[in-house]
Fold:
Amino acid sequence: MRVPKPDGRLPPPVLALLLQITAVAVAAFAQYVAARAGHALSLLSFAFLCGAIAALLSHLLKMDTWWLPIQFVFVPALVATLSLSLSPTVFLVAFLIMLAVYWSTFRTQVPLYLSSNKVWQALETRLPAGQPFAFVDLGSGIGGVLTHLAQTHPLGRYHGVESAPLPFLWSWLRIKFGRHAQCTVRWGSLWDCDLSQYDVVFAYLSPVPMEALWNKARQEMRPGTLFISNTFAVPEHPPQESIAVEDLHNSTLYLWRM
Ligand SMILES: C[S@@+](CC[C@H](N)C(=O)[O-])C[C@H]1O[C@@H](n2cnc3c(N)ncnc32)[C@H](O)[C@@H]1O
Structure:
């Protein structure tokens, strides 16, 4: 199965960037008018004006609300960082690290954030007891889910697939040096993963791929096997069970028996 096609809208990061450019152009025009009237803005005021315009445009174009503070602080943060006169190498290294961690986030709209210990414990309660089974974490991050469950349920085989290079490398080292013989992790896309091999499929992704992932799960998973999503439900397919987890994010596990 291929990665789901975009719905024709601009990807949010591209839209955010275009709005920033528009905001700078509008603010520059305002600065030109203000300067002619003898009231030129300071650099910081100009930066905050850019931020306010970018946030307003983002709101008007119905971007998700969490984009608004990002849009507001982007130019002020840029100005503040440039004023520190840091070496360009610092920016290059920071960029390469971000690239290795967030790699395909631009395309997948699924960033790296980690399930809590309490989610791991809730997962434990739904694993098959006293018998061998196969578990997959789709987008396995740094491997915490796999290595934790391998310790509490050693009869399982745990597989992870992760597309971002640095989290993949981290999880690979974690598995190798932690001697978690029942765990394996692969660098690749979850869309190339054959779900028919697993008794339990776990995903903690984002709202964006859930519908396509549900279709894939329905096509490939065997009857009686378990599909679990952390936090993100499937539109129009209510789960058979949900588990509220009392962690920092008030996570919810959604469970479907295929
Ligand atoms: C929210 S994190 C969850 C990490 C881990 N499963 C956990 O619960 O702690 C989602 C992960 O999925 C990865 N990811 C996103 N899209 C992917 C894809 N198409 N194939 C493989 N991994 C993907 C991201 O790089 C990120 O590390």
